[in-house]
Amino acid sequence: MTTLPPGSTIGILGGGQLGRMLSVAAARLGYRCHIFEPGAAPAADVAAQLTQAPYEDSAALEAFAKSVDVVTFEFENVPAEALDRIEALRPLRPNRRALAVSQDRLTEKEFLSGLGLRTAPYANVESAADLAAAVQSLGCPAILKTRRLGYDGKGQVRLTDPAQVPDAWAAMKDAPAVLEGFVGFSMEISVIAARGLSGEVACYDPGQNVHEAGILRTTTVPAPIPAALRADAVLLAGRILNALDYVGVLGVELFVTQGGLLVNEIAPRVHNSGHWTQNGCTVDQFEQHIRAIAGWPLGDGSRHADVTMENLIGTDMTRVPDLAATPGIALHLYGKADVREGRKMGHVNRITSATA
Amino acid sequence: MTTLPPGSTIGILGGGQLGRMLSVAAARLGYRCHIFEPGAAPAADVAAQLTQAPYEDSAALEAFAKSVDVVTFEFENVPAEALDRIEALRPLRPNRRALAVSQDRLTEKEFLSGLGLRTAPYANVESAADLAAAVQSLGCPAILKTRRLGYDGKGQVRLTDPAQVPDAWAAMKDAPAVLEGFVGFSMEISVIAARGLSGEVACYDPGQNVHEAGILRTTTVPAPIPAALRADAVLLAGRILNALDYVGVLGVELFVTQGGLLVNEIAPRVHNSGHWTQNGCTVDQFEQHIRAIAGWPLGDGSRHADVTMENLIGTDMTRVPDLAATPGIALHLYGKADVREGRKMGHVNRITSATA
């Protein structure tokens, strides 16, 4: 195991708010960051360098890779060809396997099932006929999701009646899809877990997630679950990390059901539901990810406060003056120029109590 | 009072570690930063823009000023002509008066005395004869300091015997100086205080400072002083802020003596002895400064943990791997390329207990 020398440069694929917070964390550990982003890049305001180019621009990608010492990403849907070019030149952390698994909902579910972990019942859907058969076997309600590029509720159709099969399939526009059966759950929680270069694992306390319109609204720690479930969540995350030979931070979304925990999905990166760690832990998820990919010892993940993280979405930005004047609230704005409906503009961490 | 609109740019004179941490705090509130720095600029790694030019380059200074919405500084010895040019174009916060007072030890002591605050006994020294007379009146030991550009123990000579007058004066190289008489004190503390655009004041809990070789080694909060002294320190800082019509964060170094508090010096900027706020408060001194100069409500300054801040100076950097592996320690490295003796390379905040 080698530690990335001080002053080294970390390449980050993606220049959104996750890249922004990763770049700040990297600087705190003495590293510089180079962001690669095809579009607008709020991360560039706090990074040493920005390359703004499409992922198809192989010259730009190669120049980027050569200018850095290790490459990571804030976004899991980077095209495979772009990753090929980068991997030929520099280490990519986490690795391709983690990306391959999480980029494709079917692969992900098969991987999780293969580890003996529970998921929602699912079926592969490549045609209207597949969908009709799947609806018959899994029942309604069910959710049809494209296998790839799902993000914040996009590319999803909810079926409440088998008669909706033709429309639902049409909405997929021939993209391979997965039908997920209905799961009764009492709450969604997530575990933010990390694995270092030398294989050690550290997890943060699970948080309870509340979504609105398919977008994460709040995460609250501690999640109101029994200690046994908390332990299950952490053990399960460790199993996923080890199976993937993972390096970095991984988000695992879980449903709490009467029969125990069920894995909803995994994200091979820092995760919105881990933003509370910025004000609840000595080493937050962003620094933890940088520590992992730079070969440092991981932070232990211990939590010194109870926190509720709330996303500021679209016009929630009008609440900023009030939030700024409220004690015990930490603001984290992303510096995005345009306020748009459904767009994550920032978040707040509300410290609800300090714990020794 | 107007609040700086989201997406505005803040100009920072000076690109060292203080500018670096200010830039990160500004980004967290949705602002961009433009750094002006004649030399090496670790702040540029986390800033949207850098102008690297001498303070005498009036074209560069004017272009810088025009590109930003408000200007602040991390360093109080910016030449007056440079400040003239900037002030002609953009608001400077804190104001010139605060700089004029703190740039000159004599002006500073006269200002503080004028407010009825205690300082060490002092005398103006413009010649060897002045020095001889001052030594006679204040006695030995005493410290001779240049009136301007003092920083981390540079430009200072300690006199233990009147016979040292000729050598001490020669060391000043004809620079106007101040002789400070000896003060018996039990400890040095400092108060980090802030005043907003609308005149409200907020202070952090005083910390105890320990120096080594003229450089701050550690700051510990809470300082082990009675509640009455804590209140005195905070009231006194408020008086200084109001008298200067100050906007931003100010550091006030105080000696604890048998007769009460005595002001050692003031620094019109975020201060090394306030770095503990990064891990002890919801709103740290860097965000507090940005809030003040951007016309936001101030954070209340309340502290949720006991913290000891320790500077990493020169070869202390070899301790980083051990520190990184110790729970409860937050690392803050400055990304400086060269390790030099006496150079501040980073700091750690050791959380010694969480308090509700």
In short:
Two copies of one chain form a homodimer. Chain A has about 350 residues and is an alpha+beta fold.
Can you characterise this structure?
Two copies of one chain form a homodimer. In chain A, strand 11 and strand 12 form a beta hairpin. Chain A has eleven helices and 17 strands. In chain A, helix 1 crosses helix 10, helix 4 (96-103) crosses helix 5 and helix 6 packs across helix 7. Chain A has helices at residues 17-28, 58-66, 80-87, 96-103, 105-114, 128-138, 165-171, 227-243, 277-280, 285-293, 320-324, and strands at 9-13, 32-36, 49-51, 70-73, 122-125, 142-146, 156-159, 177-181, 187-195, 201-203, 207-212, 215-221, 248-257, 260-267, 305-313, 329-333, 344-354. Chain A starts with 8 loop residues before the first strand and ends with a strand. The model of chain A has no long low-confidence stretch (mean pLDDT 94). In chain A, the strands form three sheets. In chain A, strands 9, 10, 11, 12, 13, 14, 15, 16 and 17 form a nine-stranded antiparallel beta sheet that branches. A four-stranded parallel beta sheet of chain A has the order 3-2-1-4, with helices on both faces. The interface between A and B is large, with 50 and 50 residues.
